[in-house]
Design brief:
homodimer; alpha/beta; four-stranded parallel sheet
Chain lengths: 406, 406
């Protein structure tokens, strides 16, 4: 309580359309605090701290507003895996030096699962080495796979993108009265939250027909049985799959096409599940087939964000700074939500160590018995998170996002 | 002049986000005319007329508004190729019967290149067989490859989607300070108009780096030379290609991966150029590579339309009906534009036969000498067409588009 010094904020892991809203929240509260002097941004996550590659942030109120819907990481991101504190002591000492040299007493790390692990390790090491610092983790991931928090900042906007785009694909595809199978592939390595957002489309349109999630083993033969049932009464079927659908042997379906590369955390680079499935459909049914991979678009569509998500992501950034200012450390901020009688979110927190490297998946009972569609309970959970629109300012017809020139 | 009877309207070919704006315009003027009784919609283009599969249209003012930004073909589309009038006499007689039986004196066909050919053939046959009908073609194609008209309805919205999305991809990709090549694939079989829209991004952001169009032969070795130059000063390169890039021998690049299927008009089904090019890059450079195909998304994004495009598409529908009401027939409505001192569009028309099956491409002088980027002249041509935003009404967070239940 009452610690005076500078603050540092960094962004890490895969991008979301709301990650800069959290940064904007951190900045606004930190810059407005009498206890915090300068607000530094570390460029490219923890790498910026290791390499003392910082910028001092000075944003106008208008820039803070524009930052809220700017996709990508304003400060840049990384996928750097921190070594073990013993074998990698030199790395931790570099971090310690950067923070000491810049008189940093507040450390805010915006990231996903792996990032909470990084924040946790740094926080522990610094405490053990006598540099008093208040470290707060701010969640972020379109995958919504963090435990404890009701949902993650960034998920609602990606889910809105998916629900909107799947509605539009339906209207395009249904224009043609021909045998036609469309397969849409959505991100989410081991958790199907994002893919499940496509089920919201069905509350308004007669689509999609089938949704396959990583939580239920994917069986190609059963898929063809399911698809045949759909095609009995409509010529054009739309199938939505997670990039991470797996066989019952636990192998990624995408892997059946060949070996996959991995990132620094050992996560396999997926993508290609839809085109592999499309080639099976083409071969077996011979009809028109189209594979559509949402790829980066679902996580960077600043023009199609959920207002709920942006406002909450901004609020959690502000709350994270307030918590640190009140002396809290080693925590990750969380959302605590009620959905009845109306949706209501309050911000809480948990220990960083409670969240590191734990993945939360969709409960099996939120997926139908056949394993090919989420249930109403799942929709009820996701629906409030995609509500509301915020449109970015445009200039010459293109969004006028705020970004840091190199 | 002064012909009384019913009207029919149909939609054909690939969809656009503005095709229903033209339908809304046709409907509004036709429904409001004292000379026109009922307004019929033919389901699935000319097939609906052949099979007498019609709906009578009765829309409220609110529905007309919602229809304007609804993607897909409200009435459905087709890719049916009309036979020769001699060998396919029975088909033409069915068309004649449908139009006679329903007392149709006004025929509006919203479509692309192939559709103008269809409208032209029908119009000629009917005239020769004594059923007086006023036939007006209304252009539509995201490809912008029709001659005579300054641009085509639907192009501006797709171009806006591309410029917006390419901006967002840039912000996502630049977050990572690693060697990284992103290849974006855009529709446009033989004309690069849509792909060229990505150049507008560069007026605001330092991206994309290279743009390859079907108008210039694509050489893989030269591509690697171009790419190496880009990568000298930035780690993450973004390359935008048309699905229809071709070798100097006139073969589609996509074809190098294997045989392509064709549609009823003999057009090859492209797509896959980016993933083929990505595999070359991966093999040769070994860095992180991502292929992104915009696929249907670029033509059905009703949530991201150009207000200019929607308003013009609506206006051309209205003007087409007015022209028919004044006795004109056998024509396609066109846009005639001035860009200096300010952009100004007026609606004109040309003979249907002048436009059928002619493709308009980007002039070579609107592409730089190296053949890897459009010039400022090309930007100046496209820029006015992506201006302005119209946001669809949403319901529960998802666009509340107007569509015809089957």
């Amino acid at each position: 309580m009452g610690v005076k010094g500078n603050a540092i904020v960094a962004q890490s892991g895969g991008m979301t359309a709301a990650i800069n809203a959290t940064l904007a929240g951190v900045y606004e509260t930190a810059a407005g605090s009498a206890d915090i002097g300068k607000v530094f941004g570390a460029l490219h996550g923890i790498e910026g701290i290791i390499n003392n590659n910082l910028v001092e942030m000075n944003l106008t109120a208008d820039e803070v507003e524009r930052l809220k819907t700017t996709p990508g990481g304003y400060l840049g991101s990384c996928r750097y895996k921190l070594p073990d504190p013993v074998s990698g002591k030199d790395v931790y000492d570099k971090i310690l030096n950067t923070l000491k040299d810049n008189d940093i007493r507040y450390f805010f790390y915006i990231g996903g699962n792996d990032s909470m692990d990084t924040a946790n390790k740094v926080s522990t090491y610094l405490r053990e080495h006598g540099h008093e610092i208040l470290a707060v983790g701010l969640p972020k991931t379109i995958d919504n796979d963090l435990p404890i928090t009701d949902h993650t900042p960034g998920f609602g906007s990606a889910a809105k993108y998916i629900a909107t785009t799947c509605s539009e694909i339906y209207l395009d595809v249904k224009s043609f009265d021909i045998p036609y199978v469309t397969i849409v592939e959505i991100m989410g390595r081991n958790a199907g939250w994002l893919t499940a957002a496509a089920a919201l489309v069905r509350e308004r349109y007669d689509s999609p027909d089938l949704i396959y999630l990583p939580e239920v083993p994917f069986d190609l033969e059963q898929f063809f049985v399911d698809l045949a049932k759909v095609r009995e009464h409509k010529p054009a079927a739309i199938v939505v799959i997670s990039e991470g659908i797996m066989t019952k042997e636990g192998q990624y379906f995408a892997e059946l096409a060949g070996d996959l590369t991995s990132d620094n955390f050992g996560h396999k680079n997926l993508g290609g599940s839809a085109s592999l499935l499309a080639s099976h459909v083409k071969e077996r049914l011979g009809c028109k087939v189209r594979a559509i991979e949402f790829s980066l678009l679902q996580r960077c569509a600043g023009h199609l964000v959920s207002a709920t998500d942006i406002n909450e992501s901004f609020a959690i950034g502000k709350a994270g700074v307030s918590a640190a200012l009140s002396g809290k450390s080693g925590i990750m901020m969380t959302y605590q939500c009620e959905r009845e009688p109306v949706y209501k979110m309050t911000i809480g927190h948990c220990a960083l160590s409670d969240v590191a490297n734990i993945e939360r998946k969709i409960p099996r009972e939120w997926i139908n018995k056949e394993g090919n569609f989420p249930t109403k309970e799942c929709n009820d959970y996701i629906r409030p998170l995609i509500q509301g629109e915020i449109h970015p300012v445009t200039k010459n017809g293109v969004p006028d996002y705020l970004y840091l020139e190199k």
